[in-house]
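Thread: FE2/S2 (inorganic) cluster complex, take 2
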Amino acid sequence: MSVALRFRLNHEDVEIHVQDPAATLLDVLRTDLNLTGTKSGCEIGYCGACTVIVDGAAVPACLQMVGLLEGRDVRTVEDLGGPDGLDPVQRAFVKCSGFQCGFCTPGHVMALRALLDQEPDPGEERIRQTVDGNYCRCTGYAKILDSAREAVALDRAHTAAGEAR
Ligand code: FES
Ligand code: FES
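Output below.
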């Protein structure tokens, strides 16, 4: 018997039916909803590859039981932007070459998006704490940190210009 769950997903009300309420949000996003921008890495909450935003906070989708999402608000990287208009955080990664293979990038982008939504002007320590929660095997982090600092500036300019996200 399946269980019906209703929640907000990327600004739309959705109802899904799951066989196992203990399934992870990561599995449901990638397998049932075909939202594969959220990456699967360690699946034990360490690597940050699966970071999504739930009720405004960055959370690892691999530790989020889907059965606990009733009535909650979920955002994935698919919500942020596409070829016609990137989120300021995504633009910062492009501008500063903050990725190589790109596997870790959605997690970094979502973690930074959640940070900037809560703290529009984070200092260097908060930026480093946020980046530190996401493993990257390619870049050595210098360009990711450059991207994160640039994201703060671009997001501030975006907000000042009154543009929608
Ligand atoms: S896959 Fe979720 S934290 Fe690594
Ligand atoms: S760019 Fe390859 S893991 Fe970060």
